[in-house]
Specification:
The protein is of the alpha+beta class. The chain has a single domain, classed as Arc Repressor Mutant, subunit A. It has a three-stranded antiparallel β-sheet with strand order 1-3-2. The protein is globular.
Amino acid sequence: MTVQPALDGSIPQPTPARQRAGDYDTWLDAVWPKFTEAAATGRTFTTYEIAEQHRLPDPPNPQAHWGRLMTLLQDQGYVRKAGWANSSRPTTHHSGVRTWKGTAAARRAAA
């Protein structure tokens, strides 16, 4: 693999790939607190932003489990759908993704 040097001639360090969890329940236990913390801020976010910010592990089935996580958070009253944005995930070519916003209940639960 060829690495493009920075303008100053230094070689950038690659970002380590996120780990993949071995089972769903262990993964859910690892990511749930970070998403409830994000919800408690009341800000609008995408799933990828929180996962990347905290370097969270990928679930056993990323295509299904990330969406299931957000559905569970919504069902539990932590988040609501806020709208749409262009994804910041490098592999998605800025495709549209759901944005989420923490609820007043999430802010109260964090207090």
